[in-house]
């Protein structure tokens, strides 16, 4: 940054490339990359960008035109003479696209956050920091300092580690140690190879590597707390890199938002159908997928992102207009334009997705088929069916990883009846309310006995086995419950009502 007449708060909306031989075509908010001219020869392009209201210009040998940018009222960035313009453009556009796709409320400027974090780590460690992904691509780095070694210089200019240096690091076992888990890896100075002393730490989500933080020692030794700071940074960066991996393209983000809006009733169905190329008058179905909650939050996020990609590929192969989105921690896939008798094929598709997730993502996934609805506008009802099936599966009903409403219909309908009763205190029997209150004060043994007795259709021995008590004890507790409440379990209507309300 050589000049910033408007301060550092000027917003960048887009990245454009300008060749001085072409007519000016910048707009307000543009970051203009001036190629084909450097130093004073770029003065005309800088003035034109200033007149258009562009946010900033980037040129090589910018120190020669600082006064021009100041007069034009536009920020001036100087690009190193070794840097290739396509790499500069990719870096800048990556930050802008990430912000545009994510939005401030949802994701923030993911790559921008990484640069800010890199600078913070540099301050805490006293070194020069770069953050890379698992393919050794440079995602962010701290501001340039003195004593930059050849490895860092080439990595940043090339946006990835140079192969001859990567080969040496692999030969020394550095990457093997970084992938092994948490911990600091030390690389001693090798002046003959252009490598200064550095420390590194792997970034992980559970056991899965996400990337690496490198801290190169500059003109001064690293701080005493550098390794502690680096370890903390490697843990703090895991969610950032997961967000970076999960950030969809603008087109994919639009499709995700369309599905979420449709299933939540926020969007006009006709508009959604036009955008995805579906017929709103044809049948549709929603598939729901859930991940187990026995993993760390960061690992679960990463697995969910991978699952979204997997589901997208499989469902798009079945229906070109399929939509996939994450809502409330679950992944939903909308399958529009269904032919007649599509359920068997969709059941096979769901089983294929679950099996692939188990083999390649090493994670157990549950899948639920919502009911087929006659038109796209009723997709929310199909999603409700899928949610109910997943809830029944989570309660232990059914042993399969894939289920449809038909497989657990009784459990789903019972759950809906109980939910209705829960919202209608007027139709509850006060005698059962008193029984529950009495039982809570006296050891809580009567209600379980009555429920087991009713679930066993009055078979006392079966109920006793379920509770692991003597049959006579079941008889006594059921009789005692009748005395306390006044409920007559010989009456069929009272029996049904008792079973429902005690379940509630």
From TrEMBL:
InterPro entries: CdaR-like_regulators (IPR051448), CdaR_GGDEF (IPR041522), PucR_C-HTH_dom (IPR025736), PucR_C-HTH_sf (IPR042070)
Gene3D superfamilies hit by this protein: PucR C-terminal helix-turn-helix domain
Domain PucR C-terminal helix-turn-helix: 446-503
A Pfam family assignment: HTH_30
Chain ranges of the CdaR GGDEF-like domain: 268-391
Signal peptide: none
Sequence similarity: Belongs to the CdaR family.
Name of the featured protein: Transcriptional regulator
């Amino acid at each position: 940054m050589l000049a910033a007449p408007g301060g550092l708060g000027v917003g960048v909306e887009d990245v454009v490339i300008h060749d001085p031989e072409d007519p000016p075509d910048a707009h307000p908010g543009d970051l203009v990359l001036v190629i084909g001219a450097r130093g004073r020869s770029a003065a005309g392009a800088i003035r034109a960008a200033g007149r258009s209201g562009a946010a900033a210009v980037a040129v090589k040998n910018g120190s020669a035109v600082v006064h021009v940018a100041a007069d034009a009222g536009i920020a001036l960035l100087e690009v190193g003479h070794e840097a290739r313009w396509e790499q500069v453009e990719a870096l800048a556009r990556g930050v802008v696209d990430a912000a545009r796709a994510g939005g401030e409320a949802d994701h923030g400027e993911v790559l921008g956050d990484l640069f800010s974090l890199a600078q913070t780590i540099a301050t805490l460690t006293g070194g020069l920091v770069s953050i890379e992904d698992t393919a050794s691509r440079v995602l962010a780095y701290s501001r340039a300092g003195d004593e930059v070694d050849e490895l860092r210089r080439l990595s940043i200019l090339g946006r990835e580690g140079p192969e001859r240096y990567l080969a040496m690091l692999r030969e020394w076992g550095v990457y093997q140690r970084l992938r092994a888990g948490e911990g600091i890896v030390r690389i001693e100075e090798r002046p003959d190879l252009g490598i200064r002393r550095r420390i590194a730490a792997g970034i992980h989500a559970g056991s899965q590597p996400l990337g690496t933080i490198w801290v190169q020692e500059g003109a001064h030794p690293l701080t005493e707390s550098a390794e502690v700071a680096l370890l903390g940074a490697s843990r703090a960066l895991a969610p950032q890199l997961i967000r970076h991996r999960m950030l969809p393209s603008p087109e994919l983000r639009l499709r995700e938002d369309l599905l979420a809006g449709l299933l939540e009733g926020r969007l006009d169905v006709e508009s959604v159908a036009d955008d995805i190329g579906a017929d709103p008058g044809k049948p549709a179905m929603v598939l729901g997928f859930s991940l187990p909650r026995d993993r760390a939050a960061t690992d679960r996020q990463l697995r969910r992102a991978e699952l979204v990609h997997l589901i997208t590929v499989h469902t798009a192969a079945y229906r070109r207009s399929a939509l996939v989105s994450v809502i409330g921690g679950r992944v939903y896939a909308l399958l529009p334009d269904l032919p007649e008798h599509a359920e068997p094929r969709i059941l096979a598709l769901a089983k294929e997705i679950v099996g692939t997730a188990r083999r390649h993502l090493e994670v157990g996934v549950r899948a639920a088929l919502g009911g087929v609805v006659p038109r796209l506008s009723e997709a929310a009802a199909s999603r409700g069916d899928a949610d109910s099936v997943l809830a029944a599966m989570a309660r232990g009903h059914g042993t399969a990883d894939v289920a449809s409403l038909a497989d657990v219909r009784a459990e789903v309908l019972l759950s809906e009846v109980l939910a209705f009763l829960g919202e209608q205190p007027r139709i509850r029997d006060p005698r059962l309310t008193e029984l529950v209150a009495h039982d809570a004060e006296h050891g809580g043994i009567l209600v379980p006995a009555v429920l087991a007795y009713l679930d066993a259709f009055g078979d006392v021995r079966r109920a006793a086995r379920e509770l692991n008590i003597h049959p006579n004890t079941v008889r006594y507790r059921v009789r005692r419950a009748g005395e306390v409440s006044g409920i007559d379990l010989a009456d069929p209507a009272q029996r049904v009502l008792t079973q429902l309300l005690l379940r509630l």
